[in-house]
Amino acid sequence: MSPANIQLAYQLLPLQLWNTIYMVFASAFFAILIGLPIGIVLTITDKGHIKENKIIYKVLETIVNIGRSFPFAILMVALIPFTRWLIGTSLGTTASIVPLTIAAAPFIARLIESSLKEVDKHILEAVIVMGSSTWQIITKILLPEALPSIISAITLTVINLIGYSAMAGLVGGGGLGQVAIQYGYHRFNTFIMIITVILLILLVQIVQWLGGYIVKSILKKRGKAIHD
């Protein structure tokens, strides 16, 4: 642990940690914007649900399955022309948000579909009999009832994005992954590599704890409301 390594870590890691947080949460936000409606449509158009539609379901299911099947390293390279067209460059932290979003969107869509399908069908049948509209069923029943499971799905997605963001460093994506590769691996700097890995692990643990805390808080409030 030489003074030079400590100084290098002090110069590089705070900024690149922020870059990692920025690209992970920005891509998670956009992935939710894309994945949430897809997950909802997959749920309500599935067999036996409130708006059963085999064609729409099969088309969306195929798109989601194809999106989830791409290894992220290959997806990053394949999307370089699209990223360059959209952002103006394929390098840097902001550019990395594009492949991260596209990788995460089908993943979260499938998780949200699974979460929404956990809602008790007897509740759905009751609100349908009461004459509730599709929009009311989605916003007043499906999403609120599945909220703890959806929060868990988002937490899992963010954790996966942290891992993906480290891989983005391979193609100049910035963040802790680029530090680990450029200064740790290529320059055989074990200290930088270890510190980078520790920061990534801590970031994952913080996200996991925060997601778990939110889920427990929601369940606790529900339990209290039922008790009252």
Provide a descriptive summary of the structure in words.
The protein is an all-alpha fold and 228 residues long. It has one domain (3-227): MetI-like fold (Orthogonal Bundle), CATH 1.10.3720.10. The chain contains nine helices and no strands. It is elongated. The mean pLDDT is 84.
Summarize the structure.
The chain has 228 residues and is mostly helical.
What is the element layout, followed by pairings?
Layout: H1 3-44, H2 54-69, H3 72-78, H4 80-87, H5 93-116, H6 121-129, H7 134-168, H8 175-185, H9 190-227
Helix pairs in contact: 1-2, 1-5, 1-7, 1-8, 1-9, 2-5, 4-5, 5-7, 7-8, 7-9, 8-9
Relevant terms:
228 residues; mainly alpha; MetI-like fold; 9 helices
Mean pLDDT: 84
**What is the CATH homology-level superfamily?**
MetI-like
Q: How many individual domains? A: 1
Kindly name the structural category: mainly alpha
Reported for the largest beta sheet, the result is: none
Strand segment count: 0
CATH architecture: Orthogonal Bundle
- CATH fold annotation: MetI-like fold
Query: For this structure, what is the CATH class?
Result: Mainly Alpha
Shape: elongated
